[in-house]
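pasting for the record
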Amino acid sequence: MNPLLKIFIIFAGIVGINRAGLHLGLALLLAVACTGLWFGLPPGKIAVTALESLGTSETLTLMALVLIIFLLNNLMDKGGNLRRMVLAFSSIAKNPKISMVALPALIGMLPLPGGALFSAPMVEKTARNSLSADHLTAMNYWFRHLWEYWWPLYPGVALALTLTGLSPGHFFLLMFPFSVMAVLGGLFFIVRPVKTAKGEAATTGKFTDLVREAAPILIVIVSMLVLLPLTALAVRHGFVPATFKSGLPVVLSMFAGLVFCLIVSRAGAAELFSPLTKASFWSLFFTVAAVMAFKSILEQSSAVSQVLENLKTYHIPVLAVVMVMPFLTGLIVGLMVGLVGISFPIVLALVRSTYPESFMAYVVVAYTCGYIGMMISPVHICLVATNEYFHSDLLKVYRWLTGPVAVVFVTAVLLFLILK
C-alpha cells in the first residue's frame, strides 16, 4: 500500500476513534502499534521504543510542565487571583470597548478549560444589550484566544516546544506576531463595527491592584526573560545538557510563579496537590506520554523515509501536507494539545527530512493552520460554551470570525515566504 496513504489512514483512525469516544491517549497508543507493525517493526521493538520514550529528557521536561501548569492554574483559580484581576481591570478601564476586549484576553492568560464561559458574563455586562448575540459570542471567543500561539502556560505550546526542539525564545519570536495580528484583526472586524457600548462607568480601582493580582503571571514572564540567556550560556559552557535547552527555562520560570503563588496564598499541601485527584490531570498526563511514544515510533520506523519517496514519486508538495494535516486535525479535534500531538510528529519529521534549512518557516505554517482549524472547529469547547451562553447562531458567529481568521492566515503565508 502507498505509504502516504498508510499515514493518512493512521491519522484518520486516530481522529475517528477519538471522536467516536475513545480517549485520545488510547487512540495514540493504538496508532503506535499500528504504525510500528505496518512499517515493519517487530512487536518487541515497538514496546521497547515506546517505553524508552518515557525516560527521555523531552518527555520528562514536558511532564514537569504539565504538572506545574495544573498546580498553578488551580492555585490562581481557587485563590481568586483571576477574578480579582478581572475586577481590578474593569474598574480601571474607562471605555467599555476596551473592557470587552481586555476581559476575555485577561482570562485567556490562564488556560482554564472552557475559560471563555467564565469571561462571557463580563463581556455581556459591559456591552449591556448594545451587541447582538452572535457579535457577543465572536467578541468573547476571539479575544479569549490571543495567547495560545506562544504563551507557555498552554499545554499545546509546551508540547509544540518539545516536538519542534525550538528554544522558547525562538518560538516566541516566531509566534508572537500572530497574537499582534489577531488583536488587530479582531479590532478591525469585530470591535470597529460596534457603534455604541453602553457599559457601566468605572467605579474605583488602582493599577497596583491589577499588578498585585497578576503577580504570578508577571513573575513567569520576568523569570523567563532572565533564564533564557542564562540557560543558553550554561549549555554553551557545558553546565547544562543541550537536551534541556528548550524546556529548562520554561520549567524554572513556571516553578517560580508557582512558588510565589503558594507563598502568597498560604495554601497547604492538600490544596496545592488537589489537581492530582482530578481525572483531567491524569488524562492529559497519559495523552502526553502517548504522544511522545508515537513520535518515537515514527522516528524508529521507516515511515518518514517511505513517505518522502512517495512524495517525490507523485510530486506532492510537502507544504500541502504541512498545511492540510494540522488544519484538519484542529478542525476535527478542536483542541490545541490534541492537534499538535496527532499531526506534528508526522509533519515535522517530513520537514526535517526535506527542508531542514527552512524548518522554522514550516513550523509557522503547521502551527498556524492547526490553530485556525481549532478556532473554527464546531467541537471547540469554548466556542460551544459561549454559543450556548449567548444563544447565538453559529453560522452568524462564523461570519464575524472570517475576517480575523483571514488576517492570521495571510500573516502565516507572508511570514513563511520571508523565513523561507
